[in-house]
């Protein structure tokens, strides 16, 4: 009995830990989806691969913080209009953090919509 409880506690503790593999996959998916959105969206451009990778990290961190503190998932299809607005705000805020990441307000709105559509097609969590 004690061994089963210890194993269960270890498993529960492991589930609550930060999973590096899952985070790397999330960053890769975010980079791919943001790159696709930048390609398809007027008013949204990324100057280099380095800017794309850095933007993926910033977007993932901002999304995680927003989700942790507000409970709102930043995807257009995750939480309806609230998720859509949060996704657009995260995209626009990334402009001020990442050099070479250029986006207008209109580009952030359209980009959030495209990210939601691509996120529905590509398995994984882009934002």
Please sum up the structure shown.
The protein is mainly α and 127 residues long. It contains five helices and two strands, in the order H-H-E-H-H-E-H. The protein has helices at residues 2-16, 20-40, 49-70, 80-94, 105-121; strands at residues 44-46, 101-103.
Radius of gyration: 17 Å
**Total domain units:** 1
Seen as an oligomer or otherwise, the chain set is single chain
Task: Report how far apart the termini are.
Answer: 41 Å
Question: What is the string of SSEs from the N terminus onward?
Answer: HHEHHEH
What is the topology, as strand order, of the major beta sheet?
1-2
Helical percentage = over 70%
Biggest beta sheet attributes: 2 strands, antiparallel
Note the total helix count.
5
Query: Regions with pLDDT < 50 over 5+ consecutive residues?
Result: none
Shape: globular
SS-based class:
mainly alpha
Number of strands: 2
Mean pLDDT: 80
Q: Into which percentage range does the β-strand content fall?
A: under 5%
Could you explain the architecture of this structure?
With 127 residues, the protein is mainly α. Helix content is 71%, strand content 5%. It has helices spanning 2-16, 20-40, 49-70, 80-94, 105-121, and strands at residues 44-46, 101-103. Helix 3 crosses helix 4. The longest helix has 22 residues, at 49-70. The radius of gyration is 17 Å and the shape is globular.
């Amino acid at each position: 009995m004690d061994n089963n409880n210890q194993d269960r506690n270890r498993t529960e503790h492991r589930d609550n830990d930060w999973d590096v593999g899952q985070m790397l996959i999330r960053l890769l998916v975010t980079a791919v989806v943001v790159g696709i959105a930048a390609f398809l969206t007027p008013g949204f451009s990324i100057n280099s691969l380095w800017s794309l990778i850095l933007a993926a990290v910033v977007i993932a961190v901002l999304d995680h913080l927003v989700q942790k503190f507000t409970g709102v998932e930043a995807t257009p299809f995750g939480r309806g209009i609230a998720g859509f607005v949060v996704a657009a705000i995260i995209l626009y805020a990334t402009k001020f953090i990442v050099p070479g990441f250029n986006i207008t307000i209109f580009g952030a709105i359209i980009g959030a919509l495209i990210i939601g559509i691509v996120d529905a097609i590509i398995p994984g969590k882009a934002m």
